[in-house]
Amino acid sequence: MKRAFLKVIKYEIIPNIQNNNKSYYFYSTVKRRFGELYQPKTRYEKKKHLEIINEVYFDMTDAMNEKNKLEIEEYKNIDKNISEIILNHTISKKNEVIRNIMKYCIEISCKEKKGKSDKSEKSEKTTHLNHNNNNNNELTDTTKYYGGINKKHEFEEDILNVIKTSVMEYSNQFNSCDIGILLKCFIKIKVDDINLINTLFHYFFKRNMKFSQYGSLYVLNAFAKFNLLPKHENYFKLLSSHILQKLDKFDFKNIPLICNYSSSLYLYDKEYITNFIEQICNFLISNNYIIICPEDNKISYSPNTTESNNIIPNLNNSTYNINQVEQLWSADSIHYVTNALARVNYLKKNLFVFFKTLIEKKVPFFSIDQLVSLTNAFSKFKNAEESNFLSLYLLIAEQIINKSYLLKPRHLSVLANSFNNACILHQKLFQVISENSLAQINLFEPKQIIMIIHSYVNIGLGNNILLKSIWNYAILFINEYTIQELSMLLQAYTKSSQYIEHFINQLSQKILQFFKKTYPFLFESYNNILYDHQKYINLSIEFKNNQKSISTNITDKYISLSFYLIYNYPNYINFIDTLKNNKTKKNNLNSVSTLLDEYKTDNSVKPNNLVTDHEKNDEIENTNTFQIDNTYTKDTYINKNHDNNTYPNEINTIQYFLDIEKAEKYLIKHMNKYTNSTLVCSIIYSLIKGNCLLEYELLISLSKLAIIYLKNFKYSELANVCSALSLAYVRSSEENNKQVELISQFTKNNNNATILEDSHIDTTQTYNDQIYNSSKDFLNISKIFFDHVETYLLKKTNTFTDVYSIYKFITSFGELRMNKYSNVSLHLFKLYIMDIKNLSYLPLQKITDSFMQMNVYNEDIYAFIKKIQKMKKKK
């Protein structure tokens, strides 16, 4: 009867308890949040919680107990009876403040939850009721607060102001546990007043503050929830070092929470957080909370055995039984630690093997959230079969299928992604995912749609009914995707072998819009980036003079300046080399002039020879004229800057460009906020190789990005970019030639007065000035890109990548059909001549064709390749 009564009142409102016109309700404040304890489960917990339901959060009862113990210690020097009187009657004002604040927080949380439930109930009712005046009797937030919604907000603001004032007034009296409890309350009601937090931190980190495990735990939670880094980095490092020193004083159930909270700060300082969690794991191992064991689940007691990855288990206590360890680890604790390890990429195989053993024995006790989260954590090891985690995935999949009625869109997307990463095509599970996804397709968030599409395509379910239906939903959210998500969507579309014209057009346009908005310098006129030596010198000096300001905050002006220096660097080097060669010719000019006079006075000289020598002389004179003009320009510039340098010193201007790497560094640092080399490679390869898309404006911007990220690409990525851009170059060249033919044909037809009217050019093939100019600009920029690649690869003196990337480099240069790239192709061929033998017949033939396209006349190379091909045929 008692149980039935409790079940009834659990969800009912107690309406008659009034205090200053405020309603109080029975309310269980604990939700299934990641990083918090769950609702009271046992009969004892429920009974105990009913006694304090409006006064203390259930998951903070242990913290309140610790607070009471600390207060007893504060009064330990006073007579025992007196101290008990002080505590029992709560003379301390700060205790009243803390209790009142917690009551206020519970009340606010209660009203927020009640408001949400009322809204959901109202929405359900309105879908079933007719649109009439009968709905006026429903209880809403506005009827509870007679002043309406504004009155409600004012009421809550008043409470928050009271809380803030009280905390500021008694802050100097709070101990470490008090401060932690207050911060936890603020987390629950989402109050992140920075002045309030700064005040509490000031007192928490005082030297003589007494240790509190819950105080430290909740302060760490505040760092995770309130985005206090990097502003309070010193406080955080002080706290983390203090936690490591006092780990033995923490209850075991709180140590997994420490891992969970700290792992959420991973992006702020990856190395520090990883090291922090590693030390916690070493503590758990050394105290036998984690026992490293082989696959047969028998503990190894050899004290001299050293585990890999610097993990040395301490198993001196031979009476310790693995069953005791299993009882110690709850489903929550396992979940928190494995997720923390995966989040910071601390993927030590022996740790995950230990947790795999525990999970397999406790798998029925995990919630659907935890099961999905565990698959995501173990998927970090990629191939599950190779990692020996296949049995775990199959067991979890079975549990998820049994609980499939609980699956939500967030579960479905993560599940699909996890099993894709683990390379497991579980047919029954993916059928469940497909059915549930189709039923809830309107509830998916944009990111979840991307994850579903990406996972299904990669796992090989391109023809799945879900994937066929979801493309149209993906395009609805195209304005909400980040550039990374757009790249993933483009990559998945390419792999799926789908052809949805409106989809790819909208997708490419959205990517173009992003680059236009984020990096406008990529869309400057081609004429603005044409090489001009004097301009290059001027900009290089300006860059050097403003290097300090550029290194800290690069503005739009210096973004364009840096790009100009990077883009035209090969042209500058060529210009300097030409000047050096011209200087050498100038030194020999007198002897050449003497020789010319001899030719003029020699009657026996043949006319042909005279012509030839005059041509040579003209060439020399032209060269000198070019040299003198540039010298004049340079001298004019130098005179303006009050510098008396002469022409020979102009050659030394290369010193300005020892800073070219700094220009690249500063520009890439700025661009890495939104893009990176891998993303640029993915977009280029998917657009060109996968979809044959010639959107010149987009291709030009991507080619410029490829020049900027050239040295940041992995060699395999650079090979893919070269392969894609060479293909785009060939197609663009064909289109440009077609436009040239149309121009010539149009001119010819206009000049031919006798031509018949019906013999004009086909209307479907008319000259397009925009296509002609755009394709021409792209061809020019592509040449600059390959010039950069040539310079970059010629510097390689040893093997630096795999032979398949070399194959892509050589064939890419071959497709350009330019003799100038034969040197770099031969250089790569000689570096990898031993590895090239391992290529199959067809790649070898393509390498041969590439050398022929570049007009390489080297019989030894052709004979070598032919010999290998014959050997391949015999096999």
UniProtKB/TrEMBL annotation:
InterPro entries the UniProt entry points to: RESC6_dom
Compositional bias of type Low complexity: which residue ranges? 129-140
Q: In what residue span(s) does the RNA-editing substrate-binding complex 6 protein domain sit?
A: 328-494
Q: List the residue ranges of the region (Disordered).
A: 116-140
**Positions with biased composition (Basic and acidic residues):** 116-127
Mind telling me what this protein is named? RNA-editing substrate-binding complex 6 protein domain-containing protein
Give the species.
Plasmodium vinckei vinckei
